[in-house]
Design brief:
Two copies of one chain form a homodimer. Chain A has 302 residues and is α/β, with parallel strands linked by helices. Chain A has two domains: 3-156 and 200-301, Metallo-beta-lactamase, Chain A (4-Layer Sandwich), CATH 3.60.15.10; 162-195, no CATH class. Helices cover 23% and strands 26% of the residues of chain A. In chain A, the strands form three sheets. The first copy, chain A, has a seven-stranded mixed beta sheet with strand order 6-5-4-3-2-1-16.
């Protein structure tokens, strides 16, 4: 089952020619989930051939402009495309009011309904539970309500070892085996573990949006297959930054990855002050070796 | 005195990779005036080396997304740059509420004041009168409140023909001549017209934003040096467009230019359905020969 993310943008708030602010597409089994939506995200979706009508769920971490100002344009284009399917928006309270204010003055009624799922910035909440995935908010520490998102695969049906399967086993009993049950058949008990293969490990993706170094996330994202964590700065220049800045360094992102024992780390949200991003990678890898840079257009398997 | 416009974007609402929605920079004597501000206008300003702090006046024709969704990002970047000078915004009522709603949820207070000049969509109003220019709204016909903008040079001081200037003429009398007055000097009357050069003709730029064919604009823009007029469609495909569409064809734009006897016409706001823009140019030039396409990065003298 496909489970991958593609980077659409990874700069921080200051605009840069040829680069884009935060946005990622998560593809699970050809369903697209959009994570943050900075300015011109709709053009990035076009550039990398993601069809808008395959996106049914959009997650906005927080209401700083570089994370959501592309949403209204994308939503209006979906309207021009005569979308009918409901669009699920997951965002801090307030985005609903912003959207309604825009629509009020463009005299617009969208061609499709919006299902708005508001969350608070300070608590873990399960905000989605579909056939394959659950999504929880990950409270961040960013000065305004801000959450990351933890995507977890749901337990799958067990696979049966066909060589061990008794002939003529009725389908309801096969389904019971796939669901992990023991069964009675022809006066014998068949133990589930004797006839099913060990399940594939469940994969998970943790998207940690803008935050200062924040250890409370560690238990929640423990063992995630893939972690994205912002790294706006490096340690060297962080000293020159004013106190109270709500961002992380590459080393801090890597420390979170290390302490949470994740499989792999992607860092992004780079400040425009660094013309060469290799400094981020070198700094992070001193703490957590399997670290990669968020580069527009690149796809990472979860 | 510099008086020129640079095209930052000229597509219509549907996004296109590598192109941008409506925005133009008007440069008058090194003061920058921004006309409309579609998504990612701030990146276009960077691309063509326009410094944000040289922009003090932004004009928004109407509140369809492709004409203003880049404004909030630009304003937030000005804040990051610690701008202090007041920013004058000229827009239909409602943009003020949209901006305040955004700021409410980003918990932001901008580093600079905004002077918001609201206008109605149905009447001519002088909205700016500075040292060199006046600006009037041009009511359009677009289904929602929408205005173009007419930039007119103010009458300049006369130039004096130095060869004819009597020696030792006191400065106050020279200034009086420059202001068009006759003067008395050494018991003689000096007629203004005998000593001043004929004034340079006053230039004007008419920016006609989204509109269906709308002849009432003609008297107001009569004789403009340069006219921008939207041309979303060509005549051929316009037949296939639903009735009641609030846009113009290239031929209609050229007809307005012809009837208003303007010096030169620029057309833009091209629908994405035309891969080759030459059809617009050919169609417009059958009616009005000095027509040009709005191409990103190109500058036109007024």
């Amino acid at each position: 089952m496909t489970f991958e993310i593609t980077i659409l943008g990874a700069t921080s708030a200051t605009p840069v020619v040829g680069k884009h602010p935060t946005s990622q597409v998560l593809n699970y089994n050809d369903q697209l989930y959009l994570l943050d939506c900075g300015e011109a995200t709709q053009v990035q979706l076009l550039r990398y051939d993601f069809r808008f009508n395959r996106i049914n769920h959009i997650f906005i971490s927080h209401l700083h402009g570089d994370h959501y100002l592309g949403l209204m344009g994308l939503m209006l284009t979906m309207h021009l495309q005569k979308r009918e399917a409901a669009l699920h928006l997951y965002a801090p309270r307030g985005l609903d009011e912003i959207i309604l204010t825009h629509l009020k003055y463009s005299h617009g009624i969208l061609s499709y309904p919006i299902d708005f799922h508001a969350f608070e910035g300070n608590s873990v909440k399960q905000i989605l539970d579909d056939e394959y995935l659950t999504v929880q908010t990950i409270p961040m520490n960013h000065g305004i309500p801000c959450c990351g998102f933890l995507f977890k695969e749901k337990p799958k049906q067990l696979k049966i070892d066909k060589e061990k399967l008794p002939p003529n086993l009725p389908i309801p009993l096969i389904l019971a085996l796939k669901n992990g049950e023991d069964i009675f058949f022809e006066d014998k008990i068949i133990h589930n573990q004797d006839i099913t293969l060990p399940p594939e490990p469940l994969r998970s993706y943790a998207f940690c949006a803008d935050t200062k170094y924040h250890e409370p996330v560690i238990p929640q994202i423990q063992g995630a297959t893939l972690l994205y964590h912002e790294a706006t700065l490096t340690e060297e220049s962080a000293e020159r930054i004013e106190a109270g800045m709500y961002h992380s360094t590459a080393k801090q992102a890597a420390t979170i990855a290390h302490k949470a024992s994740v499989g792999k780390l992607i860092i992004g949200h780079f400040s425009v002050r660094y013309p060469n991003l290799d400094v981020f990678l070198r700094e992070a890898r001193t703490v957590f070796e399997p670290t990669f840079l968020a580069i527009e257009g690149e796809t990472h398997q979860v």
